[in-house]
């Protein structure tokens, strides 16, 4: 496909039917492969919409010092897109993030600050907010910016509706910033209010990159619980096992959060007699090769 800019390649990602994980007549499971975005994850969509919209409104320009806390994928997307617009971007991330993520952000030209691992993404958010308050930085604020979820309202939701020919009955998504599930839910519910929206969270003792159960004080401002019909919890072990199974059985190479989302989708399917279930595969597995995810055996 010929394009004038790599930005035109954001979205319109493949929707692929599962052939190995579901053997239940009347139920279909479909993978929305967001790793096919140019930056390698679903976060290309909100990153582009947040930057483009802020530029159009005049909220930012080439002289604006930008800062954003990220667990990885949003940072990569922001680094790539900020570079294309000649914007000054500093990204803040816990120091235990995978080497692939760190090096990719730096390759795109962003400044990267690593915060203590024990403080998690909350610590990275606190650091970025202090720079905004005390040093004149501006934050796109993926956790509270409506342009995050609107990206999925404008693209992800319509693509799923189009590619399932309006037959989708259930949508399953991991919840981090919650932009994906908020925007897609808003669009799909407008098309058919009967479509069930299922969010995925980790169990209390689990750490799954990209999926969070936020403390109340850090709950994303864009999150509206009324747009989620059901939440399914998955363990770290389940998510990791499924990520490896997706690669070996379906040829879908993805990260742990995608493994968690598919685990939840299969738990949902156990309760269904019929349906068309779409699950977000949010990124690619090569982003995790320096971690233990694919070193382990099941």
Automatic annotation (TrEMBL):
Binding annotation for pyridoxal 5'-phosphate: 73, 176-180, 257
Sorted UniProt keywords: Amino-acid biosynthesis, Cysteine biosynthesis, Pyridoxal phosphate, Transferase
Family annotation (Pfam families): PALP
EC number of the protein: 2.5.1.47
Required co-factors: pyridoxal 5'-phosphate
Chemical reaction(s) catalysed: O-acetyl-L-serine + hydrogen sulfide = L-cysteine + acetate
PANTHER family documented for this protein: CYSTATHIONINE BETA-SYNTHASE
Name of protein: Cysteine synthase
Originating gene: cysM
